[in-house]
Amino acid sequence: MGERLLQKIFLYIEENEMIAAGDLVLAGVSGGADSMCLLMALLAYRKRVPFVLRVVHVEHGIRGGESLADAAYVERFCTARGVSCEVVHVDAVGGAKERGLSLEEAARVLRYEAFERCAARAETDRTAQADGAADETADQTARVGRAADGAAGHVRIAVAHHREDQAETVLWQMIRGSDVRGLGGMRPKRGRIIRPLLAVCRDEIEDFLRAEGVCWREDATNALTDYTRNRIRHEVVPVLAQMNAQAACHLCETAERMQETEDFLREQTDRAYGIYVGCRADGALFLAEGLLREHSLLQRRVVYEALCMACTTSRDIGAHHVKLIVELFSRQVGRVLHLPGGCCAGRVYGGVTLSAGKTRGVFPTEGGEADIQAVPAGGCETDLQTFPAGGCGTDFQALPAQGYAKAARILPGQVRMEVLTQFDLTEISKKKYTKWFDYDKIKDNVQIRRRRGGDYLVIDGAGHRQKLSRYMVNAKIPREERDNLLLLADGAHVMWVIGYRISDEYEVDKNTTTVLKVQVSGGKEDE
Asked: Residue 218: helix, strand or coil by DSSP?
């Protein structure tokens, strides 16, 4: 029985590429049956694949002496097996009051924050030490092998959710009215988080521990129905099991199908986002009217993603707000909406803008179009550090958030745009990521975006045009890089293939009276 369960877990780990040789795995172990099974499985898997294993126990400060006894049990268990164990104490009650959360949710948030802090510290240590295994005990190093040291591997956080947990999550998301992503429940792997036990059920876990002679701790609060998840576990799931003994299994299968559906929709959302969403000169996001040609589902998803970007958070953004933005496309120019997180949406010619903070300098006045003129003149800089470092990179890098990559996302990152009315032509920048443009030749909204059909450049002083696709071929830009290149565009006219050439149409010459200076890539003057 025990070996069969372990093989099932090992197969799930390998199918989802959770652990590789040289990784450092931090196992969240509470002392309960699920986490003790996780620890036993990881100890066994370490004999199969060389990696470093450490344990993190989070003591929530809720159950007094009982909680401290749980921590002591986990420490003793780990010590007996030569595994490093760190106990982290948090104040769930205080955290709930401070953050306005339920005790259950506060405990979860604080627990994962503790896991992430431990992981970040471990990652820093591994990077700083070329022989990363030097801090491990000699006993563990001998068993794990030299392949587990160094900074080559990843840092993973292993948690002990199983099939019933997944079924409960899907039910909870259904009750909340969640979308496809929510109905997909918990992913086997999300960022640093891995869930090796999602393929097994609670009965299998307990049978395995009994067969191995491993005791576990019982958390009395798990039996209470004061918490939503507990009510689902103790009152809803048993009723479903009476109706169909395989109910939990079927819910988990539904979650897998929803995850697959979400993956497809994510690809389509990224494609549409790359086409219809760009960054304007004033820092606002611009959603082009062409988005309305897409399916209504994609319209809502793209608007939601843009809202999260503009507001720098998804908190308090709901379906109602998304609906209002979609409806704004059909309203008259100049209409403004105020949204959660201090975000404002404005109807402009050609689409809708989303901006964090005040609307001044972003939306049109007297029916005029809000465009590059929103950038202050007279040499005043607009430093568009619109999003915090935790939400995106500073160099237009792809954004990894909530567990999935957004390769087609367009981020403002750090872009510095400066309108110059006094300048010296001898100072025209020749740097790769700093360019000058003739301001008066700009005809439309300036956007930073990916390529679209119909894009072109002017390639000589005579005004001859070349399709962007042909330029990329001639410039020998690798095919796999072309869709991800960032462009500074004036409508379909590509002003600058960032990192490559600018369009001759916008070149500064002796007749230029106003210059738009654009600096990209983290604001580094030497680039």
From this structure: coil
CB 491 within 8 A of CB 396: no
Average pLDDT value for residue range 182-204: 94
Taken in order 445, 446, 448, 449, the sign of the CA dihedral is positive
Amino acid present at 357? G
E strands present in 51-200? 52-59, 84-89, 155-158, 189-190, 193-194
pLDDT-derived band at 28 (thresholds 50, 70, 90) equals very high
CA–CA gap between residue 121 and residue 317 (Å, rounded): 32
**What is the C-alpha to C-alpha distance for residues 298 and 265, in angstroms, rounded to an integer?**
8
40-49, 72-81, 375-384: least confidently modelled range: 375-384
* Confidence at residue 408, expressed as pLDDT on a 0 to 100 scale: 29
Q: What are phi and psi of 137, to 5 degrees?
A: -65, 155
Closest CA to 85 of 109, 50, 59: 59
Coil, strand or helix at 60: coil
Q: Which residues contact 368 (CB under 8 A, 6 or more apart)?
A: none
SS3 state of residue 359: coil
pLDDT at 309: 83
Tokens of 501: 């050439």
Q: Residue 54 and residue 235: Cα distance in Å, rounded? A: 36
For residues 306 and 300, what is the distance between their CA atoms, to the nearest angstrom?
A: 10
Tokens, residue 14? 């390998």
- Residue 190 pLDDT exceeds 70: yes
Task: Please report which helix (H) or strand (E) contains residue 24, including its range.
Answer: strand 24-28
Q: 510-515, long-range: CB within 8 Å, 24+ apart, which pairs?
A: 510/425, 512/438, 512/439, 512/440, 513/421, 513/440, 514/377, 514/419, 514/420, 514/421, 514/438, 514/439, 514/440, 515/419, 515/420, 515/423, 515/436, 515/437, 515/438, 515/439
pLDDT value of residue 402: 27
Which residues in 310-467 belong to E strands, given as ranges?
Answer: 336-339, 343-348, 351-356, 381-383, 399-401, 404-406, 415-420, 434-438, 446-449, 456-458, 465-467
For residue 484, the model assigns a pLDDT of 77
Neighbour count for residue 133 (Cβ, 10 Å): 22
Residues 150/132, Cβ–Cβ less than 8 Å: yes
| Residue 200 bridge partners (DSSP) | none
Kindly tell me if the per-residue pLDDT of 396 is higher than 50: no
Q: Backbone phi, then psi, for 452, in 5-degree steps?
A: -135, 165
**How far apart (Å, rounded) are the C-alpha atoms in residues 118 and 106?**
18
How sure is the predictor about 357, in pLDDT bands with cuts at 50, 70 and 90? low
Burial 402-436 (b: 16+ CB within 10 A, else e): eebebebbbbbbbbbbbbbeebeeeebeeeebbbb
Q: pTM for this structure? A: 0.61
